[in-house]
From TrEMBL:
Recorded catalytic activity of this chain's protein: dCMP + ATP = dCDP + ADP; CMP + ATP = CDP + ADP
Binding site for ATP: G7, P8, S9, G10, S11, G12, K13, S14, S15
Source taxon at top rank: Bacteria
Gene Ontology annotations of biological process type: pyrimidine nucleotide metabolic process
GO MF, one example: ATP binding
EC number per UniProt: 2.7.4.25
Name of protein: Cytidylate kinase
Amino acid sequence: MIIAVDGPSGSGKSSTARGVATRLGLRYLDTGATYRAVTWSALEHGLDLDDTEAVAARARALDLGISTDPQRGHFTADGTDVTEAIRDPRISASVSKIATNLEVRAELIRRQRAIIDAAQPTGGIVVEGRDIATVVATDAELKVLLTADTDARLARRKAELAEGVTAEQLHDQIVRRDADDATVSEFQVASDGAVTIDSTHLSLEEVIDVICRLAKEAEAAPRDQES
Ligand SMILES: Nc1ncnc2c1ncn2[C@@H]1O[C@H](COP(=O)(O)OP(=O)(O)O)[C@@H](O)[C@H]1O
Ligand SMILES: Nc1ccn([C@H]2C[C@H](O)[C@@H](COP(=O)(O)OP(=O)(O)O)O2)c(=O)n1
């Protein structure tokens, strides 16, 4: 089974997808972390992020280690543990430059699909990002577009970040980044077959409940048709 969760920044994709995977005993893939790891590596190598060829070459050369354990996110880049480093505001501020590089996208989508395929014999995977239902895993059994209004997303991100974050920094991390990311992925309206869940007034547990119920229904559907 593949469950795709797409949506804008701060809508709750990572926490929800981890919770669903834990509850259903599935693997979990944070595709945003793959874009963050390439950003980290490109900066580490002193590359100009506007040099799309050089950045794409770095993405292709990068030895990326990605854990799919929903309880223990762990990422390595060329052998260095970058689990914490890829969450740094410096990476958040630059990652859209990497995510809008179409050659980088092609390389990372290839790797994401390999991870999804490898998870199938174990029961399946919850995959979250911006283009999962529309590009990476169009055959997903369940496709969710997770949304929340901008004020809720800003408030959630504010609560997560260190004290002293300015309104401008928050705006950059949510509104500006979504606008840039939306130039290469469609995550603001639901694709065909996707269910929209607006989490503005739902708790995290409530969103997880809804997705787990939809997953059970999706899993049962083909069997119903066969009988
Ligand atoms: N339904 C919800 N209600 C309130 N807070 C939430 C909800 N879903 C997620 N959060 C919180 O909002 C923050 C951002 O969630 P996250 O999963 O990182 O979003 P995304 O992956 O979409 O950027 C986290 O601190 C998370 O705990
Ligand atoms: N499938 C994906 C996943 C993420 N991205 C881009 C969009 C984001 O700016 C970065 C980082 O994604 P991430 O999900 O970590 O971002 P959040 O801070 O959780 O909103 O990567 C993408 O273009 N396609």
